Batch of 2 targets.
Target 1
Amino acid sequence: MPLPYLIYPEYRLVHVRGRGVLTAEAVIQHLEALAADPLYVAPMRKLIDYRNVDMSGFDFNAVRRVAAAKEALEVRFQGERNAFIVGSDLTFGLSRQHQSLMNDTEVQVGVFRNFEDAAQWLELPVPESVLLAAWEASIHR
């Protein structure tokens, strides 16, 4: 199952919220779904909330597969800025590996420990509470 996301066109933002065990396949499915989404208009900001994911099944080969999938879709994601918010040292390290693999692409990646730093890097003009309220509203539709 791909990672759930919401697109906020008014902020040129994709908001991703991961939960539970995360697999490379789920991330790749997410990338493919987002690339096909007509609401996605590059370049966009992408806020990836991994504070509540378990990445214990990931290794460098999984990180490399995800990076390769994103590179294959680079034309679609050209100019995108990805801010990962992480909650564990393992997720931080794996996200930094992803960041390193994306260095020579048109997709920028930053890894952060909190929303405020990620939002500042993305130049995001909206507080987390607004995004979470919209997320909750979308679930209850």
Target 2
Amino acid sequence: MKIYLVRHGQVNHNLYKKYSTEDEDLNETGINQALVLREKIKDLDFDIIISSPLIRATHTAKIININNKEIIFDDRIKERNPGSLNGQSISVTNREEYWFYYSNIQYGTSENIQEFFKRVYSFLDELKSKDYKKVLIVAHSGVSKAFSGYFEGIKDGKFLNRGLKNCEMKEYELK
């Protein structure tokens, strides 16, 4: 099965480099990014779209769904929950450490990275049992880091720079 993973378009907390648990919609830049992506993938024939239920992902999914495919939602591909870091600048954490798979440091009540990856991995493991040929998935930067770990291995455990940019797409083969 081919998987096309897309990160949602820009939202203000991306722009202002803040942690956020707010269910925030795309800003104007994010909408334009999704429209550009829609044009790029208009000839991509996929069976279904699976999206994070967060507004920024669902709005992106609706914009890029040029062929009006079914969209289903899965909580397991929501972004990593920053917990008590909500509303704070990303600079309050050591970003390398925050996205280091083997870290023993807990930042506030943020979701543990290993638990977060397990959540995303359970989604991918279940997806293997489905009879799709091509699936478009709309999710988040953290989810794209977890996909990287699943498909490319944990390697040195460093995930800070392994995520997708807004409305970037990456293709994987799920066997």
